């Protein structure tokens, strides 16, 4: 048994000996809560694999449900969901907890019979999640194989017959003829029992997933085709991965970290298994791991950073009749958002409420929003919150305590006026009515606004002369685009000194999003998106802010911070920037997810690479599609791009299921900043439409970036 296998076994035994998990193995009756009136008892139990939660109704006969621990993102203790807040008067917080699932799956709100039982499940689930996150690559792969075995073993006898294997291949997106499938099955069936058991299925899976594409690279650098010597590995790292510094130490580190054979590690060589483990690890990813961490200067003025920002954060659906919820704030903050919107209005009994004013959206209490912000807003911030809003007088007046009572009272709603003027510019009656709209402003709220006073934007010239550092202007998307078209360089200079916020048009009642890249090209810091709406716009937002420790702040390029430079996003070539050539060879795909649940349906995948940046850099190219193979499609197609402003470019990889009669179906995507790309042979670990990981789905590519002379 290898050290890694021993470590895995020790971890498994440690888990099973844990008191909290022992309690979960036995099982617990808890109330599943959906609303104040829907509270039903369910029996919950942890399965022996320590990976699956099984539960059923006490009355529903044999029917039951399961979910994987890997699907659970977090465990919240107490009344930390909208549903549990609604029944806070009925059940104490020490008996309540919430399981938050990845993606768009709804929360599971539970009430235990006692505080002790609740604690066992809260602590136990957190231990299981930590254990899963700390698994090595090989353990994760073994777990994934085990999950597939369970799905395919329909009669649950711990064995798989050939019919179950054929069904499994279809589930895994593999279109394989019966003769070839039977040959693999027979080879793996060492016991000649006509079925595959644990180790036999692992062997079958490994034959199925042989990586000829990676083997080709391995053998190109291996002297004997069996191993990479330390020198072989160094040659590969220098010539293909373009590693320059500390190559010997890095090669030794890779062998120690990824080589599964004790003998090979002792001889300082790498086998094919170790080479594959390295290429599928974070160090073999297209995303440079040093840029995943916090690596930028975080001491510059706030206007020098792009800031991950949300629009109408409280909404989970559309802008007119949508559901308002504190869940919107929790999801946005956990996704890295650092600027949230709280539309605060007078409510009944002088209790402030939050909702989209003058619409039919539901209402939530302001105090619940503030509680959530206190719980979730300080995962990597400096313990400070800045309020952006209307302010009576200026910062200097507040500091000197000279705010006159005559300044108190009404302020116009600049944003609402601007929005209606832009979107209904042909309708004079609406414009006239909105311009007259006034709102009363609380002095206490005004005093809380310090560094982000909302002011009306007149012109770039006026701003340059009169604006204060603590002032911020908001622009509708259409107004921002107009400024970019007509005075792009002036907008960039304005944003080197001042904060700007851009928000969606009032006509986007379906909560759709505009393209944020256009606004980042002009240096706009606070580009507010509807986080609840999946799509390319949120992919770009997630991609930009996936760097720098996922802290929600990204330092703008130097030429956008320096007021002595003149950068025009519409004409970047005037600044003397030297373009780069980006060459991407799309080699293969691995275990792409099914998009059509129809039985027997196999995808026909193609890969599209999109460049998002200044208008001159916007481009997209596609590979050909591969017939009926979502499991291990091979392309070896090369796509070429020219990048003029790499500091602003994002690269989006999209996999689609080709359809000649209708629109292609989305399969997966991954978006990252151009500056975070690692050259060489790299894996791209795909994400779902919601931005969550879908392991082990990936693409294998070769990347080259060169200067254009």
What can you tell me about this protein's structure?
This is Phosphoinositide phospholipase C. Keywords: Calcium, Cytoplasm, Endoplasmic reticulum, Hydrolase, Lipid degradation, Lipid metabolism, Membrane, Metal-binding, Nucleus, Repeat, Transducer. It is found in: Cytoplasm; Endoplasmic reticulum; Membrane; Nucleus. Its EC number is 3.1.4.11. By secondary structure, the chain is α+β, with helices and mostly antiparallel strands. A 7-stranded antiparallel beta sheet has the order 4-3-2-1-7-6-5. Strands 14-17-18-19-20-10-21 form a 7-stranded mixed beta sheet. β28 and β29 form a beta hairpin.
- Terminus-to-terminus distance: 55 Å
Residue-averaged pLDDT: 87
Strand ordering within the main sheet: 4-3-2-1-7-6-5
Residue windows where pLDDT falls under 50 for at least 5 positions: 1-10, 405-414, 416-421, 424-436
Number of strands: 29
Largest sheet: 7 strands, antiparallel
Helix content: 25-40%
Amount of beta strand: 15-25%
Number of alpha- plus pi-helical segments: 25
Structural class: alpha+beta
Radius of gyration (Å) = 28 Å
Give the overall shape: globular
